[in-house]
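We emphasize that the prediction below concerns an isolated chain of 257 residues; any contacts that depend on oligomerization or on bound cofactors are therefore not represented. The input was used exactly as deposited, without trimming of termini.
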Amino acid sequence: MVDVLVCVKRVPDSSGQVLLSPDEQSVDARHVGFTTSPHEECAVELAIQVAAAAGGGATVLTVGSVDATAQLRNAIAVGCTSAVLVEADPNRLGPADVAAEIAEVIRAHEAAGRRYDLVLLGNDAADTGDFQVGVRLGYALDRPVVTGIATCEVQGERVVARGEGPDGTEVFELDLPAVVTVSEGGVAPRYPSIPGRMKAKKTPVETRAAGVDPVGPARVRLKLMPEQPSSVQVLGEGPAAAPAVVDLLEQLGVLAR
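Result of the prediction step, given as a token string:
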């Protein structure tokens, strides 16, 4: 039996225009909703798959405000069996603080007899771009860690993780317990069913107070990249455009000359 802990973060929905807060320390979420990042949606799906294949359970955890309970219940609705909220002000936390809080929960649960063989996280935070939490957590727990993984499975006492590298698919084998960060694209996150949503509403969420004195994010500022200019070439109208279309297809190599 393999029990999996998957960590998620409540982030602003960035499907529209991204705005920064006046102090340039976070994404301005006043005019948008909140969601879970695509990396973490895939991490949740992998946690459910791995736990189901090994006869275990998948617990979802977040460090943040009580509003993040919505993201925990979304994970329960698609198959996670329990949830933990470490209540804290996310604006005061840096990657080291988040990793320390997660490590504290894992140690406390292990002391109570709940062991997590595998910890999954998103590869990076969708709002602040922090890539550090998974690596810091691995070091804090003295567990092997691998990042940027697309899929993983548990085989005996090891986890086999696969990700895309510069020369093709890379395969890593780590002894359990281990920490793995997940990039989107390897699995398709499932949608919650109506029974799943009903179950999520009734499932209790374990709430814990933050236990680590935060050192803070220590970031200078966030910066939005300038929008890339785009141009449109009108080839013509109606039948008169046909020769120009043929010329363009030949230039692209779609048609042979």
